Amino acid sequence: MTSASHPAAPAPTLYYPDPRPSADVRLYCIPPSxxxxxxxxxxxxxLPETVELGCVQLPGxxxxxxxxxxxxxxxxxxSLAHVLDQENDSRPYALFGHSLGALAAFETxxxxxxxxxxxxxxxxxxxxxxxxxxxxxxxxxxxxxxxDLVLTDLIGPLxxxxxxxxxxxxxxxxxxxxxxTLLLQHRHHEEPPVESAVALYGGCHDPVATPDDLATWNxxxxxxxxxxxxxxxxxxxxxxxxxxxxxxxxxxxxxxxxPLVPAKPSCP
Length: 268
Fold this sequence. Notes:
Layout: E1 13-15, E2 25-30, E3 51-57, H1 73-87, E4 93-98, H2 100-114, E5 122-126, H3 134-146, H4 151-155, H5 160-164, H6 166-185, E6 197-203, H7 211-215, E7 228-230, H8 236-239, H9 241-256
Helix pairs in contact: 1-2
Protein backbone atom coordinates (compact mmCIF):
# COMPACT_ATOMS: atom_id res chain seq x y z
CA MET A 1 0.00 0.00 0.00
CA THR A 2 1.33 3.47 -0.80
CA SER A 3 1.42 5.86 2.15
CA ALA A 4 -0.44 9.13 1.61
CA SER A 5 -0.76 10.67 5.04
CA HIS A 6 -1.68 14.30 5.58
CA PRO A 7 1.39 16.38 4.69
CA ALA A 8 1.12 18.28 8.01
CA ALA A 9 0.60 15.26 10.26
CA PRO A 10 3.17 12.51 10.91
CA ALA A 11 1.99 8.91 10.74
CA PRO A 12 0.36 7.16 13.71
CA THR A 13 2.46 4.65 15.61
CA LEU A 14 1.64 1.53 17.62
CA TYR A 15 2.39 0.83 21.26
CA TYR A 16 2.25 -2.69 22.72
CA PRO A 17 1.99 -2.38 26.54
CA ASP A 18 2.40 -6.16 26.99
CA PRO A 19 3.92 -7.73 23.85
CA ARG A 20 2.57 -11.22 23.15
CA PRO A 21 4.19 -12.49 19.93
CA SER A 22 2.61 -15.93 20.36
CA ALA A 23 -0.94 -14.59 20.79
CA ASP A 24 -3.53 -15.86 18.31
CA VAL A 25 -5.14 -12.48 17.61
CA ARG A 26 -4.17 -8.84 17.76
CA LEU A 27 -6.52 -6.14 19.02
CA TYR A 28 -5.76 -2.64 17.72
CA CYS A 29 -7.46 0.16 19.66
CA ILE A 30 -7.88 3.72 18.37
CA PRO A 31 -8.30 6.33 21.13
CA PRO A 32 -11.03 8.96 21.52
CA SER A 33 -10.54 12.70 21.21
CA UNK A 34 -7.40 14.13 22.90
CA UNK A 35 -6.33 10.71 24.24
CA UNK A 36 -3.02 8.98 23.61
CA UNK A 37 -2.08 5.31 23.44
CA UNK A 38 -2.07 5.12 27.23
CA UNK A 39 -5.87 5.33 27.21
CA UNK A 40 -6.04 1.60 26.45
CA UNK A 41 -2.84 0.39 28.15
CA UNK A 42 -4.70 -0.80 31.31
CA UNK A 43 -6.72 -3.19 29.13
CA UNK A 44 -3.73 -5.52 28.74
CA UNK A 45 -4.24 -7.00 32.21
CA UNK A 46 -7.86 -7.84 31.39
CA LEU A 47 -7.13 -9.62 28.10
CA PRO A 48 -6.25 -13.32 27.83
CA GLU A 49 -2.73 -14.28 26.72
CA THR A 50 -4.21 -15.27 23.37
CA VAL A 51 -4.95 -11.61 22.54
CA GLU A 52 -2.19 -9.04 21.98
CA LEU A 53 -3.11 -5.40 22.56
CA GLY A 54 -1.83 -2.77 20.15
CA CYS A 55 -2.62 0.84 21.14
CA VAL A 56 -2.67 3.45 18.39
CA GLN A 57 -0.70 6.59 19.20
CA LEU A 58 -1.90 9.54 17.17
CA PRO A 59 0.27 12.63 16.65
CA GLY A 60 -0.68 15.69 18.65
CA UNK A 61 -1.23 14.01 22.02
CA UNK A 62 0.54 12.03 24.70
CA UNK A 63 4.26 11.71 24.06
CA UNK A 64 3.69 13.17 20.60
CA UNK A 65 1.95 16.34 21.78
CA UNK A 66 4.44 18.58 19.97
CA UNK A 67 3.39 17.18 16.57
CA UNK A 68 0.45 18.43 14.47
CA UNK A 69 -2.83 16.52 14.72
CA UNK A 70 -4.89 15.12 11.88
CA UNK A 71 -7.88 17.23 10.91
CA UNK A 72 -9.00 15.17 7.89
CA UNK A 73 -10.54 11.75 8.44
CA UNK A 74 -9.51 10.52 4.99
CA UNK A 75 -5.86 11.32 5.56
CA UNK A 76 -5.98 9.72 9.00
CA UNK A 77 -7.56 6.54 7.61
CA UNK A 78 -5.02 6.30 4.79
CA SER A 79 -2.09 6.76 7.14
CA LEU A 80 -3.41 4.34 9.76
CA ALA A 81 -4.25 1.72 7.15
CA HIS A 82 -0.66 1.91 5.91
CA VAL A 83 0.66 1.41 9.45
CA LEU A 84 -1.59 -1.61 10.07
CA ASP A 85 -0.72 -3.09 6.70
CA GLN A 86 2.99 -2.84 7.49
CA GLU A 87 2.41 -4.40 10.89
CA ASN A 88 0.54 -7.36 9.42
CA ASP A 89 2.22 -10.66 10.30
CA SER A 90 -0.60 -12.90 8.99
CA ARG A 91 -2.32 -13.13 12.38
CA PRO A 92 -6.00 -12.13 12.38
CA TYR A 93 -6.80 -8.84 14.08
CA ALA A 94 -9.70 -6.79 15.37
CA LEU A 95 -10.15 -3.02 15.33
CA PHE A 96 -11.77 -1.15 18.24
CA GLY A 97 -12.51 2.56 18.21
CA HIS A 98 -14.19 4.73 20.83
CA SER A 99 -15.89 8.02 19.86
CA LEU A 100 -13.52 9.72 17.38
CA GLY A 101 -11.73 6.36 17.24
CA ALA A 102 -14.90 4.68 15.97
CA LEU A 103 -14.95 6.86 12.88
CA ALA A 104 -11.21 6.30 12.36
CA ALA A 105 -11.63 2.52 12.71
CA PHE A 106 -14.49 2.42 10.22
CA GLU A 107 -12.78 4.56 7.60
CA THR A 108 -9.50 2.68 8.06
CA UNK A 109 -11.25 -0.63 7.42
CA UNK A 110 -12.70 0.76 4.19
CA UNK A 111 -9.29 2.09 3.16
CA UNK A 112 -7.76 -1.34 3.78
CA UNK A 113 -10.46 -2.91 1.62
CA UNK A 114 -9.79 -0.51 -1.25
CA UNK A 115 -6.11 -1.43 -1.02
CA UNK A 116 -7.00 -5.15 -0.98
CA UNK A 117 -5.21 -5.56 2.33
CA UNK A 118 -6.17 -8.02 5.06
CA UNK A 119 -9.40 -6.81 6.71
CA UNK A 120 -10.14 -7.02 10.44
CA UNK A 121 -12.12 -10.07 11.55
CA UNK A 122 -14.13 -7.73 13.79
CA UNK A 123 -14.81 -4.00 13.73
CA UNK A 124 -15.89 -2.87 17.21
CA UNK A 125 -17.38 0.63 17.31
CA UNK A 126 -18.18 2.58 20.44
CA UNK A 127 -20.09 5.73 21.41
CA UNK A 128 -20.59 7.50 18.08
CA UNK A 129 -23.53 7.81 15.66
CA UNK A 130 -22.91 6.30 12.23
CA UNK A 131 -21.40 8.85 9.81
CA UNK A 132 -24.13 8.60 7.17
CA UNK A 133 -26.78 9.99 9.53
CA UNK A 134 -27.63 13.65 10.03
CA UNK A 135 -27.15 13.21 13.77
CA UNK A 136 -23.49 12.42 13.30
CA UNK A 137 -22.54 16.04 12.59
CA UNK A 138 -25.30 17.68 14.61
CA UNK A 139 -25.10 16.01 18.01
CA UNK A 140 -21.82 17.38 19.40
CA UNK A 141 -22.36 21.05 18.38
CA UNK A 142 -25.95 20.86 19.67
CA UNK A 143 -24.90 19.43 23.03
CA UNK A 144 -22.10 21.97 23.47
CA UNK A 145 -24.26 24.96 22.52
CA UNK A 146 -27.26 23.95 24.65
CA UNK A 147 -25.16 22.85 27.61
CA ASP A 148 -26.47 19.28 27.45
CA LEU A 149 -22.85 18.17 27.21
CA VAL A 150 -19.86 19.65 29.01
CA LEU A 151 -16.22 18.95 28.23
CA THR A 152 -15.76 16.45 31.05
CA ASP A 153 -18.75 14.46 29.73
CA LEU A 154 -16.97 14.14 26.41
CA ILE A 155 -13.41 13.29 27.45
CA GLY A 156 -13.52 12.48 31.16
CA PRO A 157 -12.00 14.23 34.21
CA LEU A 158 -9.58 17.05 33.48
CA UNK A 159 -6.17 17.13 35.20
CA UNK A 160 -5.88 19.88 37.82
CA UNK A 161 -2.85 21.30 36.04
CA UNK A 162 -5.11 22.45 33.21
CA UNK A 163 -6.89 24.74 35.62
CA UNK A 164 -3.69 25.95 37.27
CA UNK A 165 -1.49 26.51 34.21
CA UNK A 166 -2.78 28.35 31.11
CA UNK A 167 0.07 26.90 29.03
CA UNK A 168 -1.05 23.36 29.79
CA UNK A 169 -4.65 24.25 28.99
CA UNK A 170 -3.61 25.69 25.63
CA UNK A 171 -1.58 22.59 24.78
CA UNK A 172 -4.56 20.41 25.70
CA UNK A 173 -7.02 22.48 23.68
CA UNK A 174 -5.18 22.20 20.38
CA UNK A 175 -5.75 18.45 19.79
CA UNK A 176 -9.33 18.80 21.06
CA UNK A 177 -10.08 21.47 18.47
CA UNK A 178 -8.33 19.40 15.80
CA UNK A 179 -10.44 16.35 16.65
CA UNK A 180 -13.68 18.32 16.62
CA THR A 181 -12.66 19.80 13.27
CA LEU A 182 -12.03 16.31 11.91
CA LEU A 183 -15.45 15.09 13.04
CA LEU A 184 -17.36 18.12 11.80
CA GLN A 185 -15.59 18.22 8.43
CA HIS A 186 -16.16 14.53 7.74
CA ARG A 187 -18.40 13.73 4.80
CA HIS A 188 -19.67 10.21 4.30
CA HIS A 189 -19.09 8.60 0.89
CA GLU A 190 -21.21 5.64 -0.09
CA GLU A 191 -19.40 2.35 -0.65
CA PRO A 192 -20.48 -1.30 -0.58
CA PRO A 193 -21.26 -2.51 2.96
CA VAL A 194 -18.29 -3.65 5.05
CA GLU A 195 -18.11 -7.44 5.27
CA SER A 196 -16.23 -7.69 8.58
CA ALA A 197 -18.23 -8.69 11.63
CA VAL A 198 -19.37 -5.67 13.65
CA ALA A 199 -19.83 -5.11 17.39
CA LEU A 200 -21.51 -1.99 18.81
CA TYR A 201 -20.93 -0.64 22.32
CA GLY A 202 -22.13 2.37 24.28
CA GLY A 203 -22.90 3.87 27.65
CA CYS A 204 -26.41 3.64 29.07
CA HIS A 205 -26.54 7.41 29.64
CA ASP A 206 -24.42 8.68 26.76
CA PRO A 207 -25.90 11.89 25.27
CA VAL A 208 -23.67 11.58 22.20
CA ALA A 209 -24.77 8.12 21.01
CA THR A 210 -28.08 6.55 22.02
CA PRO A 211 -28.83 2.86 21.34
CA ASP A 212 -30.76 3.95 18.23
CA ASP A 213 -27.74 5.96 17.08
CA LEU A 214 -25.47 2.95 17.52
CA ALA A 215 -27.86 0.70 15.60
CA THR A 216 -27.57 2.91 12.51
CA TRP A 217 -24.04 1.52 11.97
CA ASN A 218 -25.73 -1.69 10.82
CA UNK A 219 -26.73 0.11 7.61
CA UNK A 220 -23.05 0.11 6.62
CA UNK A 221 -22.31 -3.60 7.21
CA UNK A 222 -23.41 -6.84 5.60
CA UNK A 223 -23.90 -8.27 9.09
CA UNK A 224 -25.84 -6.66 11.93
CA UNK A 225 -25.30 -6.42 15.67
CA UNK A 226 -27.43 -5.33 18.59
CA UNK A 227 -25.74 -2.58 20.65
CA UNK A 228 -24.30 -3.67 23.99
CA UNK A 229 -24.67 -1.04 26.70
CA UNK A 230 -22.57 -0.54 29.82
CA UNK A 231 -23.22 1.59 32.92
CA UNK A 232 -22.05 5.16 32.42
CA UNK A 233 -22.03 7.95 29.86
CA UNK A 234 -19.73 8.82 26.97
CA UNK A 235 -16.62 8.00 28.99
CA UNK A 236 -17.83 4.57 30.14
CA UNK A 237 -14.65 2.72 28.95
CA UNK A 238 -12.68 4.50 31.70
CA UNK A 239 -14.95 3.05 34.40
CA UNK A 240 -15.84 -0.29 32.79
CA UNK A 241 -12.56 -1.74 31.45
CA UNK A 242 -13.10 -5.30 32.69
CA UNK A 243 -16.73 -5.81 31.54
CA UNK A 244 -15.96 -4.11 28.24
CA UNK A 245 -12.87 -6.17 27.47
CA UNK A 246 -14.63 -9.37 28.49
CA UNK A 247 -17.43 -8.65 26.04
CA UNK A 248 -14.96 -7.58 23.38
CA UNK A 249 -13.04 -10.84 23.71
CA UNK A 250 -16.28 -12.82 23.32
CA UNK A 251 -17.15 -10.85 20.19
CA UNK A 252 -13.67 -11.32 18.72
CA UNK A 253 -13.86 -15.03 19.47
CA UNK A 254 -17.22 -15.31 17.72
CA UNK A 255 -15.84 -13.54 14.65
CA UNK A 256 -12.54 -15.47 14.73
CA UNK A 257 -14.31 -18.79 15.16
CA UNK A 258 -11.81 -20.27 17.62
CA PRO A 259 -11.43 -20.18 21.42
CA LEU A 260 -9.33 -17.28 22.68
CA VAL A 261 -9.45 -18.04 26.39
CA PRO A 262 -7.20 -21.01 27.25
CA ALA A 263 -9.11 -23.96 28.65
CA LYS A 264 -8.66 -24.58 32.37
CA PRO A 265 -6.62 -27.72 33.14
CA SER A 266 -8.73 -30.67 34.18
CA CYS A 267 -8.33 -32.19 37.62
CA PRO A 268 -6.13 -35.33 37.70
